[in-house]
Every structure is written in structure tokens, then in C-alpha cells.
Automatic annotation (TrEMBL):
<protein>
    <recommendedName>
        <fullName>endopeptidase La</fullName>
        <ecNumber>3.4.21.53</ecNumber>
    </recommendedName>
</protein>
<dbReference type="InterPro" id="IPR041699">
    <property type="entry name" value="AAA_32"/>
</dbReference>
<dbReference type="Pfam" id="PF05362">
    <property type="entry name" value="Lon_C"/>
</dbReference>
<dbReference type="InterPro" id="IPR046844">
    <property type="entry name" value="Lon-like_helical"/>
</dbReference>
<comment type="similarity">
    <text>Belongs to the peptidase S16 family.</text>
</comment>
<dbReference type="Pfam" id="PF13654">
    <property type="entry name" value="AAA_32"/>
</dbReference>
<dbReference type="InterPro" id="IPR027065">
    <property type="entry name" value="Lon_Prtase"/>
</dbReference>
<dbReference type="GO" id="GO:0004176">
    <property type="term" value="F:ATP-dependent peptidase activity"/>
</dbReference>
<dbReference type="InterPro" id="IPR020568">
    <property type="entry name" value="Ribosomal_Su5_D2-typ_SF"/>
</dbReference>
<feature type="domain" description="Lon proteolytic">
    <location>
        <begin position="566"/>
        <end position="761"/>
    </location>
</feature>
<dbReference type="Pfam" id="PF20437">
    <property type="entry name" value="LonC_helical"/>
</dbReference>
<dbReference type="GO" id="GO:0006508">
    <property type="term" value="P:proteolysis"/>
</dbReference>
<keyword id="KW-0645">Protease</keyword>
<dbReference type="InterPro" id="IPR008269">
    <property type="entry name" value="Lon_proteolytic"/>
</dbReference>
<dbReference type="GO" id="GO:0004252">
    <property type="term" value="F:serine-type endopeptidase activity"/>
</dbReference>
<dbReference type="GO" id="GO:0005524">
    <property type="term" value="F:ATP binding"/>
</dbReference>
<feature type="active site">
    <location>
        <position position="699"/>
    </location>
</feature>
Length: 790
């Protein structure tokens, strides 16, 4: 029985939208889908990882760009609260460590209270800055301070007066020099001895004076020590008085804060330490040392002592789960950094200049990043693994780590880290990390594998229609009518290269809808209709089809030789796909085979000149094996065959031309001509079975376009493997041509069927004597080969 071409209904699967209600006329009547369609497997992986709080259950999301990985995860996280209700969010603040200023302390506060605590401290400081000088500027303080000073003066004067009196009784004067030193000098009556008068004294009198002076000098040294102790005692009493006065101001002001934050032990401890430190640094508030005060107030934002500021590193919303997307994952952006400030030519830093990173802001929630960007940035991957292993966020200076210098910098207290990391990347990056980084599988234990396509059913078409509706609603587009929805779904099947599948490359669908919306609005339409979708698709193709137009022009000018009518021996039209970065199209190629007396080898010219790839060479070897099984069962084939792609000046790879090559060789063997109005594509195995190939739609369309250029004939057509029939989603003009009978598409299961179509004869059956029917292609070829053997 002759092989029948496919009917037109097999070439394109129309979307009937049976899953939608009959009264649903447009996307306006469709509930938008709040999730990404067809990604149940990936969604379950994300849900599983988010449910486990143990270390290491971070997520690597695998899939090509445009599958909606980030959108799906964002929608899921926004829709689902974390399962662990006990975990609460915190605000993280850095404050000064009064005992060791190089190591700022961390305060953990309930979410939403960090900023309020900062404001409370600022109000406290404003009160103290104004109130402290007033407390020391009153008569009571002056009176008590004067009393202490007078008491010290009385003691000092009394001790010196007593010593002066004793010395005078021994005729010795105690006086104070202009340099501030005490001096003991012998007296001559009421006058001081001069050198002359002193020398006139007897030796015994001089010795007596020396002995008395030495005794009084010893007493004077004791009194001086006593004066120092009294001064120190006075200073302590003065400091105690100052602290008493200041404490009255501080206690009154800070009591409210202690009551307000009594449930937060860390804050209470900080307030106690702050109160103590203020008492020890009253000069900051009393402005006794101008230079010190100026530095103390060298704040970048408010006029208050830097020492007592609260640096709110992270302020969380108590009602919102933290979801952070880091678009620029460099070291500082992720882990934070410490700024430097300049004051009067001096560069300095402190805890108030610590700045947060993505990990700080995502603490308690999720941080999403692109895997390739993370791996491209220096030191980021190691830092990320270190943080995930320790579950602590150390803010270390990258400059110090890189330069290995001993520059003084801050060493802040680490912040406990509780975060889920989601990396988005392709499969190749995933494989590299698995292979080269043994820690990767321990830290990223969950893989969310995103599908490229989904099965096309009435139910999935309904989901897809709601997905289209969600894009329309999210982007405030014109609504699509029912036929436009169906056309977009059909386009999705074409993108998937399968009548029974839908592409999940959501970026392509979103881009098409945007361009369709533009076309509709440009024509002042109120709704997107089918012809708007078609116009957008034509515009898309026109923008990227320059190379196709150039190739097709070569058929117009005759530069590329190809026949689309008649018949030739050893010559067949094969089909190939030419691909650019964002477009692919089909183009027919002529394959020729010539024979010469030889040892039965098939000489692949493409391979010999290194234009043929390894897969193409494998295909030639497979067809050689089939040839041997057909014609070389009892003896060698006495012909050498030369096989090539004509006018092929670039690389050739793939085995989709192996059936065409076999037909050309059989034609050369039998000297029976091959129809040139039919093209063929498909690979084969050693038994001659037709195997599926890729790009079948583009290949058929390419030959159809060349036939239009060369001249249309109703006998023209294409042979494809039967296993590719489900991949057909052809252009409307080709479907119409097949329906009218002016173009044919045959789906075959074995290479013999292709030979019969191309040569118009049966291939023949093997008889019990090992020969083929004489009136068959194989029989004619066998007779010619047997003649050569003799």
C-alpha cells in the first residue's frame, strides 16, 4: 500500500480552550494565577526547604533564564508565612562597648523597636546635654564646691603655717620662690643671712643651722606629700560631688527608659553601663575640654556625643517576612562594611559607622542571589560559606584580609545568623559546584529543578490561560479575547516543539503579550485579538530574520543550487537548521553520492576535510552498516561511495541527514533517479528504522519557502520520521497548502518507505535464495553489484 501523506489536522493542534467556561470571553473574566504554572516539583522543593530550620537546607534553583524562577519563589514566599511560628524577627543594633571600644556590642531587640530605642537614647542625650550644665550652674553646687576648696586651703595653710612657726623659732625662714618651690634659709635676727654674714658664724653655729634646715626639709617633704594626698582627696570629693549632681539628673532621665525596656536584659545592661560611663565622662557634657568635646560631637547626623549613639543596623517590620533580592552581590553589599569619617584632617571610625549588608537585612528570612554573580565576585563565595557554617555574621574588614596589614579596625561582636539562601543558576554552574566544592552539597541540600515544559491538556490550558491573565493584570495591558488566548497557547506549543506540550519559558510569553499589547494600542483597539498576536509574531521574526532573508535570497539568485522539480540520480534534498543566538530557521541542502569501483567503503568528504562533526560521522557509519546488511550479506560491495553536502562551506554536524544520505547512495547504486520535488529529514539506526530529529517545523517551513521561490508544484512535499509527527506546529500557510493538496508531508517509520516515495518503486523483499525482487530498487541495485562482482 502506498504511504499516505499526513492530513492537515495532524500538522497543527488548535487550542479549543475546553477547560474554560463557555461564557469566559476574555482574560477579564479569568482569575489571575498567583503562582507560576507547571512548576509543582520546584515549588515543593522550596516549601520543603523553608520548613526545615536546621543548618544546610538552603536552595539552589536550577533552570534556564526566563522560566520565572525568581517570580515563582517570590510569589510563594509572599503567599506563605514560615511554618515555624516560634521564630521571631529582631532588630539588630550596634552600641559602644564601654570596656573595649574596638569591639562594639550587639543589641537584639524585637522587630520594630530598634528605631524607637535609638530615638529614646537621642531624647535622653538631648536632655542631658541641656540639663547637665544647668545642674552645675546654681548656688547650691557653687557653695558645696567652694566649701571643699576652702577646706583644702585651710588644711594646706595650717600645715605650712605650723612649719613656718617652728622654723622661725629656730631662726629659719620658710618662703616660696617665684618658680613655685619651697625654700628654707637661715636668719640673722629679722633678716636673712647673706653669704658674708653666714661665713662669719662659728663652725658650731653653721653646723647647727645645717642640721636644723635638714630636719625642716624632711618635715617639708612630708607636708608636701600630705598636701598631695589632700589634693587627691579633694579631687575625689569634687568628682563625687559632680557625680552626685549628675546622677540626680541622669537617674531622673534614665528611669523611664529602664522601666520601658525592663523585659530586655541586653538593653537594661547597656543602660546601666551607659549611666556609669556618663558619670565618668562628665567633661563631654560640661564642655571643659573644647578639643575633646568637638571630637565627641563629630557626628554625621545629630549633635549628640558619638559615644552614646545607637546604630540601628537592621530595622525589621514585625508583620513582614524578610525577603531580600541582592542584584549586586559584592562583598560589602552582602556582609556590610565599616565607613571612615574625617574630622579636622583626622580619619577615624567607630561603631556608629558600621553599615549593614544583605545578610543583615535578610536575617530571619530569605536572601536570593544569582549564582554566577556570586561566584564572579572575589571572596564572596568563601565568606558566604563561612557565614552559613558558623551561623554567625562577622563583620570583618575585607581590606585587612586582602592586604594582610595590621591596620587598626573595629572587631564588632558577631550577629547570630538565621537565613535561607536561594541561589538561581543554570545546570552547568550547579555541576561545577557539585564537582569542585565539597562543601556545596552540605550547605545547599535542596535543589529546586524548574521544568522547561508541561503536558498540554484541557486542565493545563486552563491554568495557562489564567497565567496569561496574571501577566495582563500585572502589567495593566488590554485584555485578550478568547481566540487571542488560544493563539498564545498555540504559540507556547510551537516554542515547546510539541503538540502535546506547553513551554514554561514565561519570559517569552510575557514579551509576546507586551508586544501584542503595543500592537493593539497602536491600532486604537480596546481588546487584544488574534490578528494583534499574529502581527506581534511577524514583527518579532522580522527583527531577527536578516540571516534567513540572506540565505533565501541565494535561492532566488541561483547562488545556491537546488532543484524542486524533476528527478536526478544520486542527488537528494536534505533539510538543515541554521541557528543564531535568538532565532533558527530551516534551509534545504543538496546531498550527492557518486560511486566508483572499490572495496565497499563510504567516503565521507565532510569528515575528510574536517568540516563534519563526530555525530555526523557516526550517522555515516550507521548507514554504512545498514548498506552492508542489505547488499553485502555474502560478499563485499564492489563500490566505493563518495558522499558530500554540496555548497557547504561551514561545519556540518548531526545525524538528521543520514536517511537522505542513504537514499542518495541507493540511487547511485541502482542508477534510479530521486524526486527533487521532495525533501527528506531524519536519522536512522542500523536496522533502517527512522529516528526523530530536532527542528522539524523549521525544516519543513524552509523547504516550503524555497519551493515558493523556485515555483510551486502540487507534488512537492517533505518526508519526516513518524516519531516527529507530534512535534508539528506548522505555519498557517503550510497547513492550508496541505489541506488543498498542494503540499504533502509524509511520516515514515523505516528508510525503505522514504526510498519508495523518492524513487517511485518498491524497495523489494528478500527471497529465500538471498535475492531481492527484480522489479524493485534493491533488486536492480543488487543486479548491478553482482555484475561488478563477476
Amino acid at each position: 500500500m502506498p504511504i499516505k501523506p499526513l492530513s492537515s489536522d495532524k500538522l497543527y493542534r488548535v487550542s479549543e480552550l475546553n477547560g474554560l467556561d463557555a461564557d469566559c470571553k476574555s482574560t477579564k473574566h479569568l482569575t489571575p494565577l498567583d503562582e507560576i504554572v507547571g512548576q509543582e516539583r520546584a515549588q515543593q522543593a522550596v516549601e520543603f526547604a523553608m520548613s526545615i530550620k536546621e543548618k544546610g537546607y538552603n536552595i539552589y534553583a536550577i533552570g534556564r533564564n526566563g522560566l520565572g524562577k525568581r517570580t515563582m519563589v517570590m510569589r510563594y514566599l509572599n503567599r506563605h508565612e514560615p511554618n515555624d511560628k516560634e521564630s521571631s524577627l529582631y532588630d539588630w543594633c550596634y552600641v559602644v562597648n564601654f570596656e573595649e571600644t574596638r569591639s562594639p556590642k550587639v543589641l537584639r531587640l524585637p522587630a520594630g523597636t530598634g528605631t524607637q530605642f535609638k530615638k529614646d537614647i537621642e531624647k535622653l542625650m538631648q536632655r542631658l546635654v541641656k540639663g547637665m550644665p544647668l545642674a552645675f550652674d546654681n548656688e547650691m553646687y557653687y557653695s558645696r564646691a567652694e566649701t571643699l576648696k576652702n577646706q583644702l586651703a585651710e588644711k594646706q595653710e595650717g600645715a605650712l603655717a605650723n612649719l613656718t612657726k617652728q622654723a622661725k623659732e629656730k631662726s629659719i625662714s620658710l618662703s616660696l620662690t617665684t618658680q613655685g618651690d619651697y625654700q628654707l634659709v637661715a636668719m640673722n635676727g629679722e633678716e636673712l643671712h647673706t653669704e658674708e654674714t653666714f661665713d662669719q658664724l662659728t663652725e658650731e653655729e653653721r653646723n647647727q643651722f645645717d642640721e636644723n634646715i635638714n630636719q625642716f626639709e624632711a618635715k617639708l617633704r612630708g607636708i608636701v606629700r600630705q598636701l598631695t594626698e589632700w589634693e587627691e582627696n579633694y579631687t575625689d570629693k569634687q568628682q563625687k560631688l559632680n557625680e552626685e549632681i549628675a546622677s540626680e539628673v541622669i537617674v531622673h532621665s534614665i528611669k523611664e527608659l529602664k522601666d520601658k525596656y525592663q523585659r530586655h536584659s541586653e538593653v537594661k545592661h547597656h543602660l546601666v553601663a551607659l549611666e556609669k560611663d556618663i558619670l565618668e565622662n562628665l567633661d563631654i557634657f560640661l564642655e571643659e575640654n573644647e578639643e575633646q568635646v568637638a571630637l565627641a560631637y563629630a557626628a554625621l547626623d545629630k549633635k549628640m556625643p558619638r559615644r552614646y549613639q545607637v546604630n540601628v543596623l537592621v530595622s525589621q517590620d514585625d508583620n513582614k517576612f524578610p525577603i531580600v533580592v541582592e542584584e549586586n552581590p559584592n562583598y560589602h553589599a552582602i556582609f556590610g562594611y565599616v565607613e571612615n569619617a574625617t574630622f579636622k584632617g583626622t580619619v577615624f571610625t567607630d561603631f556608629s559607622l558600621i553599615r549593614s549588608g544583605s545578610l543583615h537585612r535578610a536575617n530571619g528570612g530569605v536572601l536570593m542571589m544569582d549564582a554566577v554573580k556570586v561566584l564572579e565576585r572575589p571572596y564572596v563565595w568563601d565568606g558566604l560559606k563561612r557565614a552559613l557554617r558558623s551561623r554567625k555574621l562577622n563583620l570583618s574588614s575585607l581590606e585587612r584580609e586582602v592586604t594582610l596589614s595590621g591596620t587598626i579596625s573595629l572587631d564588632p561582636e558577631p550577629i547570630p545568623l538565621d537565613v535561607k539562601i536561594i541561589l538561581f543558576g543554570d545546570y552547568q554552574t550547579y555541576q561545577l559546584l557539585q564537582h569542585y566544592d565539597p562543601e556545596f552539597s552540605e550547605l545547599f541540600r535542596v535543589t529546586a529543578d524548574f521544568e522547561d515544559e508541561m503536558v498540554r491538556t484541557d486542565e493545563s490550558e486552563e491554568h495557562y490561560a489564567r497565567f496569561i491573565s496574571s501577566i495582563v493584570h500585572d502589567n495593566n495591558m488590554l485584555h485578550c479575547d478568547r481566540k487571542a488566548i488560544a493563539r498564545v497557547i498555540e504559540y507556547s506549543s510551537r516554542r515547546a516543539d510539541d503538540q502535546n506540550k506547553l513551554s514554561l519559558h514565561s519570559a517569552d510569553i510575557a514579551n509576546l503579550l507586551r508586544e501584542t499589547n503595543y500592537c493593539a494600542r497602536s491600532s486604537n483597539a480596546t481588546m487584544i485579538r488574534t490578528h494583534h498576536v499574529e502581527q506581534a509574531l511577524q514583527n518579532q521574526e522580522k527583527r531577527v530574520s536578516r540571516l534567513k532573508d540572506h540565505v533565501m535570497h541565494s535561492f532566488v539568485t541561483g547562488t545556491t543550487l537546488l532543484d524542486t522539480e524533476g528527478a536526478s540520480v544520486g542527488q537528494v534534498n536534505a533539510l538543515a537548521v541554521i541557528a543564531t543566538s535568538d532565532y533558527q530557521f530551516g534551509s534545504p541542502n543538496r546531498i550527492t553520492a557518486t560511486t566508483a569501483f572499490g572495496e565497499g567503503d563510504v567516503f565521507d568528504i565532510e569528515r575528510k576535510v574536517e568540516l563534519g562533526g563526530s555525530i555526523h560521522s557516526k550517522g555515516v557509519m550507521i548507514l554504512s552498516a545498514y548498506l552492508s546488511s542489505v547488499f553485502g550479506r555474502t560478499s563485499k560491495i564492489p563500490l566505493t561511495t563518495h558522499l558530500t553536502f554540496e555548497q557547504s562551506y561551514g561545519g556540518v554536524d548531526g545525524d538528521s541527514a543520514s536517511m537522505a544520505e542513504l537514499c542518495a547512495i541507493v540511487s547511485a547504486f541502482s542508477q534510479q533517479p530521486i524526486r527533487q520535488d521532495v525533501a527528506i529529514t531524519g536519522s536512522m539506526n542500523q536496522f533502517g528504522d527512522a529516528q526523530p530529529i530536532g527542528g522539524v517545523n523549521e525544516k519543513i517551513e524552509g523547504f516550503f519557502d524555497v519551493c515558493a521561490i523556485k515555483g510551486r508544484k502540487p507534488t512537492q512535499g517533505v518526508i519526516i520520521p513518524a516519531s516527529n509527527a507530534h512535534n508539528l506546529m506548522l505555519r498557517k500557510d503550510i497547513v492550508e497548502a496541505v489541506e488543498k493538496g498542494s503540499f504533502q508531508i509524509w511520516a515514515i517509520s523505516h528508510v525503505k518507505e522514504a526510498i519508495e516515495i523518492l524513487m517511485g518503486m518498491k524497495t523489494g523483499m528478500l527471497t529465500e535464495h538471498g535475492n531481492y525482487d527484480l522489479d524493485s530498487i534493491f533488486g536492480i541495485a543488487q543486479i548491478k553489484l553482482n555484475g561488478l562482482r563477476k
